[in-house]
Design brief:
107 residues; mainly alpha; 30s Ribosomal Protein S18; 4 helices; 0% strand; elongated
Length: 107
């Protein structure tokens, strides 16, 4: 009954040949790399507003439209690459630009 599972009757995992920590040993392949690149190996990029001197502004329609879909939705932080601080400022700038008619509400 318990042969297909990796637990015994008491609910504890059997260790088998791999030892206590398993195949990976002491967190070997989980992202604890010496070069500081993390799990996927790439370096962390700064957001576009952190790299430039200028924060998001409602008057800069060209930059705002790059971060808005064709339907008029704002791209998420993950997709746009903005940090949390500048994503909030970007959202306020888009709302101000929409109110003034510089950016459309819907595509």
């Amino acid at each position: 009954m318990y042969k297909d599972r990796d637990r015994d009757r008491d609910g504890y995992r059997e260790r088998g040949e791999r030892g206590e920590r398993g195949e990976r040993g002491d967190r070997g392949e989980r992202g604890d790399r010496e070069d500081g690149k993390g799990r996927r190996g790439g370096r962390v990029e700064k957001c576009r507003f952190c790299r430039s001197e200028f924060p998001p502004d409602y008057k800069d329609v060209e930059t705002l439209e790059r971060l808005i879909t064709g339907q008029g939705k704002m791209y998420s932080r993950k997709r746009s690459g903005n940090c949390a601080h500048h994503q909030r400022q970007f959202a306020l700038a888009v709302k101000q630009a929409r109110f003034l008619g510089l950016v459309s509400y819907v595509g």
